[in-house]
Specification:
Layout lengths: L1 H30 L4 H12 L2 H12 L3 H26 L2 E2 L3 H20 L4 E2 L1 H21 L5 H11 L7 H36 L3 H13 L1 H12 L3 H26 L4 E2 L2 H25 L1 E2 L1 H23 L4 H30 L28
Antiparallel strand pairs: 1-4, 2-3
Length: 384
């Protein structure tokens, strides 16, 4: 009971710390004249991944590599299956943001790169440094590409992350204090969460890998969940998708990069992660390709499918770890029926979108009207 309360307290502190960090950093960035689009693509997307960074670094320093690695891999799976699935169930997600469509192949490539880097059983320090350097280049790429975004996308971020260009001394001190409080809260929350997760794993007889992939991963993904679901409900669909994809890239490049650098001898990558969980993360990232690149949207039905797979993945982890007798039947049903039917459905949906020309003309879907209107713009209903 004490471990469960400590776990809950850790999650609450992580979410509160991420909120304070994002709010303070966003206001300072806006006061410095940084565009709302860049703030949304970098400060906010990275800030919502601060819990993953705090937890993985703490776990690495404490000698719990399965929690450090499982947290990132589980969070990336959770971000796509749970968060995008839930967001699309709230409202179909339209992907007008060109950077997101370029980010999806990057996310997939980094997932494959992580598998290759971990084949020797450890993510070494020099590989972590290479990941961090890649994160710096990716951030510069995101800032550069943001200048080419459409006016509708810019207006969407302007309405979400715009702030006063000038702040007085009191406001600056307040925002710096928010950042400091957020960082301290993240560190304390990560300490509570990792300690409680290890205790719960021991009591329940569940491996630290499963705890990291499930409870810890979902707990650290709550900021992304809140940001994306609220954005979807308000019609800010690009923000919902961009936050998830940007956070997944940040998790691999910065979270694992920094965690492997601070850990003595790098981070150990368990064989079970290499055999199953990282390939699942790759498959989840690959699923986004036909959805994002062809249809430029995630429909409600596809959102329900993503949620279903998150439940199935979690159930498989628990049954496999507990060596449940039902595991064989469950695996056979997934391989023989569910996965092939989903592949056929996605292929059919993609072919339909390409045949209709949706990948070239998003307006034909009748969903562009969900983007925030530009000042002075006329809607189709105003036309004679």
């Amino acid at each position: 009971m004490m471990a469960a309360l400590l776990l809950l307290l850790g999650v609450v502190l992580l979410v509160a710390g991420a909120e304070a960090l994002v709010r303070g950093a966003s206001r300072l960035a806006a006061a410095a004249g940084i565009s709302p689009l860049v703030i949304g693509l970098t400060v906010v997307a990275y800030g919502t991944s601060a819990p993953e960074l705090a937890v993985s670094v703490k776990a690495s320093l404490s000698g719990q590599p399965d929690i450090a690695m499982g947290n990132v891999i589980g969070s990336n799976i959770c971000n796509v299956l749970l968060i995008l699935g839930l967001s699309a169930t709230v409202a179909p997600l339209v992907v007008n943001q060109s950077l997101v469509r370029k980010d999806v192949p990057i996310m997939l490539g980094l997932s494959v790169l992580l598998l290759l880097a971990g084949m020797n059983g450890v993510l070494q320090r020099w590989e972590g440094l290479a990941f961090i350097l890649g994160g710096v280049f990716y951030t510069a790429f995101a800032v550069h590409q943001s200048r080419r975004e459409s006016k509708a996308v810019v207006a969407e971020y302007q309405g979400k992350f715009a702030g006063p260009r000038r702040h007085g001394a009191v406001q600056i001190v307040t925002n710096v204090a928010l950042i400091a409080i957020g960082l301290v809260t993240l560190v304390v929350g990560a300490r509570f969460l990792v300690s409680a997760a290890v205790d719960i794993a021991r009591v329940l007889g569940v491996s630290e890998r499963v705890i990291g992939l499930t409870i810890v991963a979902v707990g650290t993904s709550l900021p992304e969940l809140a940001t994306s679901v609220v954005a979807a409900a308000r019609g800010q669909r690009d923000i919902a998708v961009g936050n998830v994809v940007g956070s997944n890239i940040f998790n691999i490049l910065f979270v694992l990069g920094i965690s492997s650098v601070v850990a003595s001898g790098g981070i150990r990558v368990s064989p079970s992660l290499l055999r199953f969980d990282i390939p699942v993360m790759i498959a989840v990232a690959a699923t986004c390709l036909p959805v994002f690149l062809a249809g430029h949207q995630i429909r409600r039905t596809e959102g329900v499918i993503l949620l279903g797979y998150f439940v199935a993945y979690t159930a498989y982890l628990i049954m496999a770890d507990r060596q449940s007798p039902a595991l064989g039947s469950f695996t056979q049903a997934m391989l023989v029926f569910v996965l092939p039917l989903t592949a056929v459905a996605l292929a059919f949906s993609t072919a339909q979108a390409v045949r209709r020309g949706d990948h070239r003309h998003p307006a034909r879907r009748g969903l562009v009207r969900d983007a925030p209107p530009l000042p002075g713009a006329r809607s189709r209903r105003d036309e004679p």
